[in-house]
Amino acid sequence: MRPASDAVAPVEVPRDKTPHRDTDPGPGGSRSASARLRRRVTRDPLAAGSAAVLLLVTVAALLAPALAPYDPDVVDNSVRLAGPSRDHLMGTDQLGRDILSRLIWGGRVSLITAVVPATVALVAGSVLGILAGYVGGWVDTTVMRVVDTLMSFPYILLAMGIAAALGPGLFNAMLAVTVVTIPIFARLIRAAVLSIKESEFILAAQGLGASGWTTVRRHVVPNTLSIMVVYGTLQTGRMVIAAASLSFLGLGVQPPTADWGAMLASGQASLRVAPHVSTVPGLTIFVVTLAFNVLGEAVRDALDPRYVGDLDAKAAA
Amino acid sequence: MSAAPRAVAGLEPARPTLLRVEDLVVEFVTRDGVVHAVNGASFDLGPGETLGIVGESGSGKSVSAMSVTGLIPSPPARIVRGAAYLDGEDLLTASSRRLRELRGREIAVIFQDPMTALNPVFTIGSQMTEAIRVNDRAVSRRAARDRAADLLARVGIPRPRERLQQYPFELSGGMRQRVMIAMAIANRPRILIADEPTTALDVTVQAQILDLLALAQEELQAATILITHDLGVIAELADRVAVMYAGRVVETAAVGDLFDHPVHPYTEALLASRPAAVPDGEDMFQIPGVPPTPLGDLPPGCAFAPRCHRRDGRARCVTESPASWDVAPRHRAACHFWTEAPA
Amino acid sequence: MLRFLLRRVTGVVPVLIGVTIVAFGIITLIPGDPATAILGPQASGEAVASLRADMGLDRPLHVQYWRWLSDALHGDLGTSIRFGEPVAPLVIDRFVNTLWLAGASLLIATMTGVAAGLVAARRAGSVADRTIMFGSLLGNSMPHFWLGILLIVLFSLRLGWLPTGGMFSIREGPSLSQTLHHLILPAATLGIIAAGVTARLARSAMVEVLSQDYIRTARSVGVREWVITWKHALKNGSLPIVTIVGAQAGFLLSGAVLTEIVFAWPGLGTLMFESIKQRDFPVVQGGLLLVAVAVTFVNLAVDLIYGLLDPRIQHAAR
Asked: According to a count of CB atoms within 10 Å of the terminal CB, is the N or C end of chain C lower?
């Protein structure tokens, strides 16, 4: 005897299709994002190594006067282009200056010219991106047209143009790099805000919050913050290269100030006899950039990957 | 229902079975540990009959049925032990090539979400003709298109020729599910597996799709495994039912027997938690507690013990895993104290 | 379909206008007077004034801009201060060389990157996957000028297999085979780094596609794995991959500048660099304009191809 097919309540809630919130514990149980990040950095050798590298570079930069074995500007013609030795751990350049000391002092310049423009561009770009994404309409169109225009120019070329027009020097180089990076962040953050906006409105429509707008604001901002941190870290790595590129081209700090890019450039003349003069500073740039990239990825994985992952294709820069 | 019970698990008068799944154990190896999705499930499917597998989300119902198709990605899935006999062949040890041959031709699947189940960049026609020609090389492209149009008509899609040219996004959810059913029956499979076929659909459309499924099954005389959490769907379509909880089959019975004389406490509780089971004005019954999480090691004993109303504090429930008892002809239940079930 | 095309094309116009403004406007950033900057502080007042008149600097800015723009639309980008030659043919000629480099690099990057990304996606989570991704991370983090120098030191100076720079050797003179021979190292430099980015994006696009329900449906119907990868997954994955490849255009041109300088490849990058240093502003303006316009059109082409491949985009644009 079959029972009548009553309108049966399902025994469980149908499969939940709403995207994760940052309040969702995510895989691995109830761990907060910072806890996951800490776990990743301590367990994963690559992430740990990167954190160590950046720490080392920062400390070295801060303690440069105490740490550097030699004065970076002291010329000594008797030991020109010497290979690594006990006196000079990384050898000397074409003017006999100790490469290790120049690396340490150069670290200051590199860190500043990477971190400061990255931060400024991040803040400015995020403001623009949030504005464009949130407000929409003609504000969005205008901002994005300007962004598109600036991004039609190859990054380096535009930076070169601006730096050259303004004149050589540290500040102008930083300014140039900042200006060229702002559109990148603006576009990224706008994309993030748009995708958050979409899903938040769905939730709001389902009557989760009393005031839809307050809920949106309370969710948009924290999620944007996490994306800002991830891409800020990633972009800083690229800016180390960008700043080094400008000084490689002679458009940043001027000699005799030690700078990794400039060291690489001046070492080009001696590639045949003493390649280390160029390759060592280049290696340093590479390692530092790699460290930023690895950490950026670790941060990205630690946070809910669902939001951040989608932006990869749009972020191709 | 007080026929003399036989204490041996599993023995009963032989009936023709098309598919027999024995003691299936499947686990998933994930970053956060091992998930025990299925913990010793056994069921069989006779030719032409509809077996409903019912259970909550996480009960292992999808994984058990789908593991015979080879569609569960492995890694991370791992079939620890068990067998699934189709015509004497164990599908769980068959090569992936063999499984691919069987898919579409002998075993067809109808998935839950019609919105994502069709490839958005190919037309309906091209997807259907592919489904047909992959399983029968001899069919020409034109013949396949004709067959596709005919199938669409039979599943109740108006103007089928037009639809063949259209892309999935141009069809509604209900229509897409019809297309899925058409694709599934295209090669006259002997076994249909319907995984929550109406869950993602509007209530109004659900009834239509269920009717369509019943029709398809009747016409093909295909044996069907119907996976669902919805007892109403079971009541309407199933001949027999297997109730799953925490990766085990806790009760198997003909559908009438199950609803009228449930033996396992979980089944009783499920039936009691239907809104219709409660007179107007009274609170609905809820099974206290939550199902065990499949992640990590399983505690010994019966998985339902923490929530069971029949347990009465008895230790056997948490120390010994219950065997599957023959409580009546073609009615089995995995409970130590099945004799205490209400008559 | 037509409406979609039209909308895309008209959307490009404001960007193009903006590009001309920026290309022209770089000059305005120069503190002080461009003519003095060119001639130096020692120059006489007359010389400066005469140069200013020549350069049209005595007119108001928007007039200068308009003159420059209308000339440009007729193909006249002014005259190079350094060479005394018309800018347009010079810039275009060099740009072609850059295209050789960028093109070869794009080929290398796309082929290795997409293939690597596909392999990594199919074996997601495996050792192969992680190795490929680590390799791409390394490539991604390398400065162009460093990798270039490394390759020069290794393949040119130490092994002597390949030339250190330039587009042809003085002895042999310019020829196709010379160009290709000299193209290998710079294209490898650019290509390796770009492949790093491509592999990553290709992998994530393909992983996304391979996890979709319709892939499972195709399997359930009995379609073979290789058909699933190369027909079902690839067609869906081709959309984001086209975007990725297109987005590489800007990235490649940027990297090309530095690579050209390291390898003394006579392309637009080296021209721009020299012109910037020598204050040859007409060339700078013309070069910037050309590059930006090219990039804009590449992006437009990518958009259009995307629309062609995905029927939903066309449908939605109606």
From this structure: C
